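Per reviewer request, we include the raw input and output of the structure prediction for the construct analysed in the revised manuscript.
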Amino acid sequence: MAYVYDSGLEGIEELAAEAAARFAGVNGLDMTVFPSVVALENDIVGRAARLLGGDTETAGTFTSGGTESCLLAVYTAREHARRTRGVEAPELVLPDTAHAAFHKAAALFGLKPVVVPTDPQTYKVRAGDIAAAITGNTALVVLSAPSYAHGVIDPVAEAAAEAARRGVLCHVDACIGGWYLGHLRLAADAPRLPPFDLSVAGVTSLSVDLHKYGYAAKGASVLLFRDAELRRHGWFAHASWPGYPVVNATLQGTKSAAPLAAAWAVLERIGTEGYVDLSRRVHLAAAALAEGVRGIEGLRVLGSPESSLIAVAADGPGIDPFVVADEMRGRGWYLQPQPAFGGSPANLHLTVTAAVAGEETVRQLLADLAEAVGAARALGPVEIDPELVAAAGLLDPDTLTSEEAALALGLAGVGEGGELPERMAPVLAVLQVLPPKLTERLLPELIGRLYT
């Protein structure tokens, strides 16, 4: 229930593989040599623009994924703010539910993140709070449609209007939901969805992944801009060297055209009607899962999901969501653990795709989940020695040595060889209660051990 997006349609993966193989040697670095790259990209960008509120002025770029799309949106906004408004100390205004990719962009491109807390009940940011956070240094406002953690849509129209009033760009992260929501609203019995795309006044860019609910092969996303003039600020060009003139619209130089060709083939094969049907099936399955979860004693759904993403938390102290995740993994299901943060408690994240949208699959998942909750109740929550946690909390993440990191990871049950334990609940429980900066310092140590 995470990371893998499967349409459940016969032949789609084979089609993508064949298309990718045919374009394996095509290099997107120089589109003057490989005009097929331009043709395929224009077609895909045009399809995305028509679906997501664009017009004849809309411009776009095909990227390697949601993170690259988000990075490019932030970089473009930084350059736009510097060149058009003279901003030298750029800031990025974003909700605390915004994807980590935006914090990565801020770190890479030298922007100061200004994090706005979301409503603890709805998990949506308030437009008034966004407005209060905007300053003369704000280069970009970020909103989510939906936010990954809870599957809810920020008040895009209201917040984008506040950004526009101050002359600030506004990006909508629709990486995970844009293709799904855009097609869902075309269904005859479509639910009422709040506006979120380029048709909304004040929205200047939008990212949408095709390797999620477009069911294309990995490495396929689109970044849309209000117009080509805005997109221009994100391009890199260099002619001051004795080699060939270089111009890049993405972070990559050399890039395989295989994902582009695979995405184009899949989009052509499934088509608009096919995507509407897939989106409708996912919508019904997600609603059935959310309703079923609410019927399991000890669980609750966080917020009111408006998309295909569901966050499931414990309803009371006797159930540890991380223990439930371990129990579900033993039953053949991967539910993604999400540690507590701010007003969001520890929970399990479910991504509903078309391949798991059948009634029997939903029934089986709910049955296994009920069993897992019962087992977790019998086992009880993970217990952590508060004195050891307090001692670990005194460690300085900026000066942490490898030996100290080993001690802290040992507290979480991670051996010196780097092997992850079979049950991850103790590891997640410890990382959850440590200071965030220390956790961020330990995570590379943890993952780095897997690659030695």
